[in-house]
Fold each of these.
Amino acid sequence: MKCPFCQHEETQVLDTRVSEEGDSIRRRRRCNSCEKRFTTYERIELAMPVIVKKNGSRTEFEAPKLRASLMLALRKRPVSADAVDAAIHRIEEKLLSSGEREVMSGQIGELVMRELKRLDKIAYVRFASVYRSFEDVAEFEDAIAEVGRERKRTSTKSVD
């Protein structure tokens, strides 16, 4: 590691500690030339897959764009910020754990719909209406019926 002060190539590690969150390592170092001390951090760098859009173009995954989509569907709905953060985290984990270098945008849309269905049924129908390009009332009715059937299944399971 180069010294940030004198650019000398050799530095000595004085202390190594894992961060409280456990997601990085903090190292205190001393330059062998100028004797100044500095701190470095090591973090895991995982690459999110590239998103392949419907038209074939490719773009980088953007978590803020994902958050904006979720927040638009959840607008004026009683869902906590922590629940949204957890949903985003689950989507990112699924994308990372897939091991794929490229993911179709439709897969992300399906992951978002699955999370919205867990968070808020109204937000799910809102998102589905745009994502699936509903063109008439019958498609809304189908989406609402789907949510109703699922709700019925989960309520009968809890009775058993």
Amino acid sequence: MNVWLGPGLLPAETLREELAGCYGVVCLLTDRIDRVLIESLPDLRFVSSMSVGVDHIDVAALTERGIPLGYTPGVLVETTADTTFALLLAAARRVCEADRFVREGSWRLENRWSPDFFAGKDVAGATLGLLGLGEIGQAVARRAQAFGMRVVAWNRSPRNVPGVENLDLETLLAASDFVSVHVALAAETRGLLNAERIALMKPGAVLVNTARGGIVDEVALVAALASGRLSAAGIDVFAQEPVPAGHPLLTLPNVVLTPHIGSATAQTRARMADLATRNAIAALKGEHMPHCANPEVYGG
């Protein structure tokens, strides 16, 4: 058994060497398990990822070989919904801007208050549009309803959730004061919020993304934020992670940025590790993984 103990994450250039001769692998979302790597591992029999999303893995390549892929659904739903709402509130009420203002010594007697001093957006009574109505989207909807928000949603397949109104994508974007992204990254959702669709969003709206970075066109988002077309954004995920130095999102004051920490609580990460381990143990025993992303490999 090979175990990477660091320092840091396993570098991509040494991943194939570390996995040579391995029967299975337990990986993180930072490990790219692509077709080239999979085809270089003739002994591979299972992959268990400590993640809900599996866009870092070539699922089709595994399925073609009959290799099961374990993942960790369910355990991070409430935690990620909390992060989503934290970003929504911080962006709406300009929390990070205000924090910097105080820390930098800009809050002085002569500007201590005015009617428009750090005026943000009301959350109560506003409309929240959810892109995706899976478990996390539904958990965010519950929080929004507790804040007295109207909740509307677009989902790729019809889904009826109490208190949530289903709309087509274009209508949702035009009607929503806040838009929150909760779809998986796949071929059909990559670039879902492109320049054309961002232009359809309600003037002054706030965008929140705790799903995957590739779903939102970051160039178009920057332009909309810089022009004031959108009032703010809360972003936890990016097309390239870590965010490269000099990325224009880093220069905008009206964006709350976090380093992909949607599921980052000690309890949730422990539950994710436990599920990933249970998937791996089942595979080692020749049993079906309790949480398999490609169950068709088992037949039936």
Amino acid sequence: MKKIIFLSLVGILLAGCSTVTITGRKQLSLVSNADVLSMSATSYKQLIDSVPLSTDVQSAALVKKVGKRIADAVETYLKNNDMSADVANYSWEYNLVKDTVKNAFCMPGGKIVVYEGILPVTQNEAGLAVVLGHEVAHAVAKHSNERISQQMVAQYGAALTDMLLQNKSAVTRNTINTVYGIGAQVGVLLPYSRKQELEADHLGLIFMAMAGYDPNEALAFWQRMAASTSGASLEILSTHPSDQNRIAQIKADLPEALKYYKK
């Protein structure tokens, strides 16, 4: 029985793989696009209905302008590289929210929210392109699908661990299950999130370059972001890479991104 369950888990992992465009990274994908997009659309509507949208008409228009410019460039790239079917997964929408948080996020299918608090850091159109390129990258790389799949496997693994320990004492089982939970979170789920963030930075540079924005602007943006952030948590316990690691990786990724850049 144990062997059957273990082999089933291995089979699921081998079968549920896809490839991220441009980077070529293999990723776990156990959920359908249709399911994820349906959940995303519902959640996004609930969010937009519950938060105050920005009354800064000029900034809100700029968010939509830059977002559309990047999304159009990405869709053109996908169509030109035999990935037209992927374009059907996106229904781009951009909203600027009235909040002082320095953040932005993207839901599957291209539902993007930018908080007003990040505008003093972006400073200009190119800085905003850094943020939106990064968020568009999360959608194109289907990072939400991957995160859901990882959670599914982690839960399956916890159940398998408990079954394998069924003949052990209650104290032993509780101790090992606690350690498993910490190990899964720190050893797998958080690092994968950091990997996704760096991948979104990488793809975001390329996408903003495709749209005619100089990817070198990303360095200045992240330097400003680092200067505006204090009391950052340890990277090993964070879902995001440290500012220093992020900037170093962006410098390494710039030569590739510049190949796509046309003024």
